[in-house]
Amino acid sequence: MLINFWGSVMPLGLLKVIEKNVLLGGLMSLGNIMIMLGFIICAVILLAVCWKDLFFLPAGDQVKGKKRAAAVFGNLGMILFLICGIVLFVYSF
Q1: What does the pLDDT read at residue 64?
Q2: What is the CA radius of gyration of the chain?
């Protein structure tokens, strides 16, 4: 959630700051990039530390045929994601 927030919502807010004060907006953009790099570094460290403990369970019942698209696009998470994406797209204009 943090990576998605810092990568999608924060830049929209930074655009408004940049319009008012280019120097402050540039510094805040640099800070945003540094935070994102920090997230990436933390993720790589956590992956390296926890690599031995990772395991993936075999897939259970698999959805086949036409039901696959309904399972992918018809669930609540995907519907909310698409709505939020459309709202952010419209808001960016």
Answers
A1: 79
A2: 19
